[in-house]
Amino acid sequence: MLRRGRPAAFALEPVDDPPFDRRLVVTPRPRNGWIVLQYRSRARVRPLRPMVRMLRTGGIVQDFVLPGGAEGRGVWLGYVAPDVSEIRLAIEPDSGFVLEHVGLRTNAGLFAECLIRRPSRAGPVLYHYARGDERRFRDILRGSCAVTPLADFAGWQALRSVPEAAAGPGPTVALVLPAAEEAPDRIRATVDALISQSHSDWRLTILSSGAIALPADERIRIVPGAATVRDLIGDAGIAGILMPGDRLRPDALAILVAALGSHPCADMVYADEIRSGPGASHVRLKPDWSPDLALVADHPGAPALYRGDLLARLAGRAVDVSSDLARDLALAAALSARDAIHVPRVLCRSVERSTVGEAAPLERHLRETGSRATVMRRDGVVDLLWPLPDPPPLATVVIPSRDRLDLIARATRGVLHETAYPAIRLVIVDNGSTDPGVLAHYDTLRDDPRVRIVPFPQAFNFSAMVNAGVAAAEDGIVVLFNNDVAVLEPGWLDAMVRQACRPGVGAVGAKLLYGDGRLQHAGVVVGLGGRAGHILRRRAGDTPGHLGRLRVAHEVSAVTAACLAVRKQLYDAVGGFDAKAFPIDFNDVDFCLRVAATGHACIWTPHATLSHLESVSRGPPVGEERRRFEAEGDRFAARWRDRVRHDPFYHPSLSLTTFGEELE
Asked: 603 and 493 share a domain?
């Protein structure tokens, strides 16, 4: 638990600097220490995290993204350097933001806390402080003291949960509770939670063939045997499914109904949950709507409310106590929902769903919709195999490179001789190689009609090199491929092309591993580290990820260009990589976000797994290169500020300070 620090007097004053239009005045003025901000906000759909801007001498401006107040309250720990002259806040309008507390902490006090909480990090903190590396000192200390493991959610939530104010009357919600051989106390727990709802306009139909003792309430009825969905929900425009033992928070229906009301085009709304399993409970902090995840995993789970065409589509379906109506509705939403909205707040304590990952409901829905996708099972996990056009499209692999025979020889061997895909071309964009071994290797490659080598004699500009390589490619699929990536399995390209050929899909990324088998790339989170970063970097290669997402293909905000597939026509349509604004870094994330802005999803797939040494051919940026990196990062953050403040596939309660799925 982060200590809130010595209380300080504070005030928020308006300034003309949108979106940083509030000046934070603190007494005594914080200098060369730390500040703790505690704030409150309402439950919101697609919330923008607050931001802090620190103005420093010499015109230096530093922006920081704060934790979202998903549970009603947020807490942020920030470093205030000695030369900070002013602190400003960016707050989402109509969010109900209230700054409750400002506390001051010292370097010494925070270091002592680090020794207790994360003693292994105390050494690096001292080292970077002594060498004057403010960024690393700040980030390691904040990550040690302000970040909480996901397993400790209960304690974290207890300090942040704020109930929503009571709402006015709303539409009737029809709820269905299948109860096959369930313990009466579990049914009673669900009913008691319903009776306590602040939104009282609901009715509950219990599907059960047994006798159930329930409190007298005209809103509750029991239907034995089977019935159609229409019979169960009647003329209600909003419906939801509960399982025996599910307990809605008292304000759950009010929050969900209000969210639907404020988004008239949405077909459904869902929220987060704490799920009870055998001997343990775990929190499920969900992404915003992710149709691919909903097809193959228990997403959106509970609680969820549906309306409109989704209900009409299933209206005639017969259901009984053993039917998984919740799964049917989720699959229908994944295949046809116009919009589905997510309230990032835990509104339900749910019970384990026994049908998660089963293939039969998915196969039935695919048949009903005429989808050509088929269900695949791999290591006990259900995923989809999307069709490959016949004949398969040409896939042109583009590799920017310079010297380093060890790297380019391995990369080209993997593409040309260790990949099973039948229609491959290879374009190497060479940035002035002088190594005799590399030049001899190129002479050998030229004997292969599938290979083309494009000279790029200008100064190193990764984006321009990629654009030149794509320009030399024929129509079809282009695959951006770093020279320090190695093929591990022959089916990698097939898996990526199948995704890239899907209507509505833009960029496709692969699962990349370091040489020691740990994760290097499992998708990019926008906002991570303040700009963008790789989620779960350096975790075990078989890490399942929160909600098991790393076991299946799913939507992400961006993927790395170290291995990225996209239709050439779409690449050209968005103008390729921005070689002016992002010549070296952030170009791939910027590209993915521009593709997404055209309505195309970005997909990461674990079924294409390769090895990546990550910038070994260039090395990490230092000195002038570091300043160039920071400048590109600032341009990226300014261009995509709202996406930095809310990555739809990363929960606002999760930390942007560390690269793991942890709370802040």
From this structure: yes
Residue whose token pair is 């994944």: 334
Residue 357's pLDDT is 46
Same domain, yes or no, for 87 and 209? Answer: no
Q: Treating both helix axes as pointing N-terminal to C-terminal, what angle do 405-417 and 436-445 enclose, rounded to 10 degrees?
A: 20
Q: Kindly give, in sequence order, each residue whose CB lies less than 8 Å from that of residue 264, ignoring residues fewer than 6 positions away.
A: none
pLDDT in tens, 168-202: 778 999 999 988 767 788 999 999 999 999 999 99
- Please give the Cα distance from 361 to 354 (Å, whole number): 13
- Residue 416 carries which DSSP code? H
pLDDT recorded at residue 615: 58
Distance of alpha carbon 280 from alpha carbon 272, whole angstroms? 17
What is the average per-residue pLDDT within 315-324? 82
Q: The domain containing residue 103 runs over which residues?
A: 6-158
Helix (H) or strand (E) holding 470: helix 462-471
Q: Which of 124, 158, 192 is the last residue of a domain?
A: 158
First-to-last C-alpha distance (Å) of the chain: 10
Q: Report the number of distinct structural domains present in the chain.
A: 3
For 2, list phi and psi in degrees, rounded to 5.
-70, 125
DSSP letters for 556-578: ESB--TTEEEEEHHHHHHTTSS-
Alpha-carbon span 414 to 444, nearest angstrom:
15
pTM, entire model: 0.95
Instruction: Please give the helix or strand (H or E) that residue 398 lies within, else none.
Output: strand 395-401
- The per-residue pLDDT for range 576-629, each reduced to its tens digit, is 999 999 999 999 999 999 999 999 999 999 999 999 987 555 556 667 888 899
- Taking 90 as the threshold, does the pLDDT of residue 316 lie above it? no
Residue 1 lies in a domain: no
State the DSSP string of 15-42: -S-TT--EEEEEESPP-SEEEEEEEE--
| Same domain (yes/no): 356, 494 | no
CATH number of the domain encompassing residue 470: 3.90.550.10
What is the per-residue pLDDT for 356?
A: 43
Residues 6+ apart with CB under 8 A from 617: 401, 402, 404, 407, 483, 484
CA dist 299 and 285 (Å) reads 11
- Which pLDDT does position 353 carry in this prediction? 74
Q: Looking at the structure, do residues 504 and 648 belong to the same domain, yes or no?
A: yes
Residue in 40, 159, 27 with CA at minimum distance from that of residue 91: 40
Residue 619: the pLDDT is 54
By DSSP bridging, strand 505-513 and strand 601-612 are parallel
Query: With bands split at pLDDT 50, 70 and 90, how would you rate the model's confidence at 535?
Result: very high
Axis crossing angle, helix 134-145 with helix 122-130, rounded to the nearest 10: 160
Q: What does pLDDT average to over the chain?
A: 93
SS (H, E, C) 119-187: HHHHHHHHHHHHCCCHHHHHHHHHHHHCCEEHHHHHHHHHCCCCCCCCCCCCCCEEEEEECCCCCHHHH
Mean pLDDT for the stretch of residues 78-86: 95
In a domain, 152, yes or no: yes
Q: In sequence order, which residues have a C-beta less than 8 Å from that of residue 45 and are 6 or more positions away? A: 259, 262, 263, 269, 341, 342, 343
Q: Where are the beta strands (DSSP E) in 504-585?
A: 505-513, 519-521, 524-526, 532-534, 554-556, 563-567
Render pLDDT for 240-284 as a digit per residue (tens, 0 to 9). 999 999 999 999 999 999 999 999 999 999 999 999 877 788 999
Give, in order, the Cα–Cα distances in Å from 572 to each of 455, 466, 593: 21, 12, 15
For the beta carbon of residue 625, count every other beta carbon within 10 angstroms: 14
Element (H, E) at 360: helix 360-369
